Amino acid sequence: MSKTATRISKVGTVVVPVSDQDRSIEFYVETLGFEKRTDVPFGEGYRWVEVAPAGAETTIAIVPPPPGNPTGDVQTGIGLNTDDIDAVHADLKQRGVDVDAEVSRMGDPVPPLFWFRDPDGNTLMVVEV
Fold first, then answer.
1. Would the pTM count as exceeding 0.70?
2. Interatomic CA distance for residues 81 and 4, integer angstroms
């Protein structure tokens, strides 16, 4: 079996479909503390919005779904890193974010983690590194 070289160098953007971009911007920027990196119109009446933690290379695009596709209740597969899982969990809980009741501690090799949901019910994970 031969290995094929790739010219792909990083994950740039992950897309999360949302029903209300303004509500999602408020959640990701005001509640989570992310930066809004991009907010530009495209197509007919659409906006391309990208948010990210300060200093992060990879962004999250919070955009409307393609016509006929639903939004919400998506397991995004997005893992956000922290060096203080308990502080982040307590802070998000205090801010009214829909977070797991407690941090999951499964033991090595799985790091402490928890999931939370955005206003559309899309699930993201926070992992202590």
1. yes
2. 30
